[in-house]
Design goal:
A hairpin with a 2-residue loop joins strand 1 and strand 2. This protein has one domain. With 273 residues, the chain is mainly alpha-helical. The protein has a two-stranded antiparallel ribbon. It is built from eleven helices and two strands. It is 74% helix and 1% strand.
């Protein structure tokens, strides 16, 4: 225990930060119920659109995906959105605009870790109220019990996607030190994640060369790969390619995030940057 406290000083304070965040979010349970309702409506909207495509073309499957599998696919994708659509940039932007980030040196906590812990409470509640219910619906519709191998792969893929999303969110949040408002930049980033991650169209329906590029991007591992892993419609080769690509992107984005924080830290003033 002593050695772990040396490696991770103030670990109790970080854990307390998460607990405070969870308690704060639990005060808004109705908001999450409403959010779940609208997520469900969004899934139904995507199902209606793709049902029209399948029925209009008169085909039983498109690129190996049947219409029932499309239903399951979008339930899983919208469940995963709770992991990747992090509010971390908004939290950082608020800290920079309010000037509270300038007090980071007066606290025995490392700001990048502390701000993540504050956001983690919201993430955990989102998983409880949004991700788990939508995953449960997908399992019920699919009438399957995921195998241990599938569960392990899903956990690895989801964790990689979650880390990638938070690193992207941190980098975007750091730009608030220069920009007045980062909402437009944030919208562009999340729209890109949804489009190139398979949140609107399964990636296997794109041209082969585009698929190969996206499997090496940080986007496929966030939505498409976990969803198709759950369905069992993606090859092991593609899964492993995306996992290793995701790990490489984590390393690269971690370096960029470190550089971004180092530069922002030097520009922080007592007036809030």
């Amino acid at each position: 225990m002593k050695s772990s406290r040396v490696i991770f000083p103030n670990i109790d304070a970080y854990i307390s930060t998460i607990i405070i965040g969870i308690k704060s979010e639990l005060a808004y349970k109705l908001d999450y119920v409403i959010w779940l309702f609208f997520q469900f409506i969004n899934v139904l909207l995507m199902i209606l659109i793709w049902s029209a495509i399948y029925l209009g073309t008169g085909v039983a499957s498109i690129r190996g995906l049947s219409l029932p599998e499309i239903y399951i696919y979008f339930f899983v994708v919208y469940a995963l959105r709770g992991f990747v659509l992090t509010q971390l940039p908004d939290v950082i932007e608020s800290d920079i605009q309010s000037g509270s980030i300038a007090t980071t040196y007066t606290r025995p906590l490392i700001y990048p870790i502390q701000v993540y812990m504050r956001n983690a409470g919201q993430d955990l509640i989102g998983i409880l109220f949004i991700t788990i219910p939508l995953f449960a619906i997908a399992i019920a519709i699919a009438h399957v019990t995921p195998t241990p191998t599938t569960v392990v792969l899903l956990i690895i893929e989801i964790l990689i996607g979650y880390v990638l999303a938070n690193l992207m969110g941190f980098i975007i949040g750091m730009t608030a030190i220069k920009l007045i408002n980062i909402s437009s930049l944030e919208s562009i980033m999340w729209s890109t994640v949804l489009l190139l991650g398979g949140g609107i169209m399964p990636l296997n329906m794109l041209p082969q060369i585009v698929q190969q590029i996206l499997y090496l991007s940080p986007f496929a591992i966030m939505l498409y790969i976990p969803a198709t892993t759950f369905l069992g419609t993606v090859s092991t080769g593609i899964i492993m390619t995306s996992i290793f690509a995701g790990l490489a992107w984590i390393a690269l984005l971690a370096v960029i995030a470190f550089i971004a924080w180092d530069r922002v830290r030097k520009q922080i003033t007592s007036a809030g940057g």
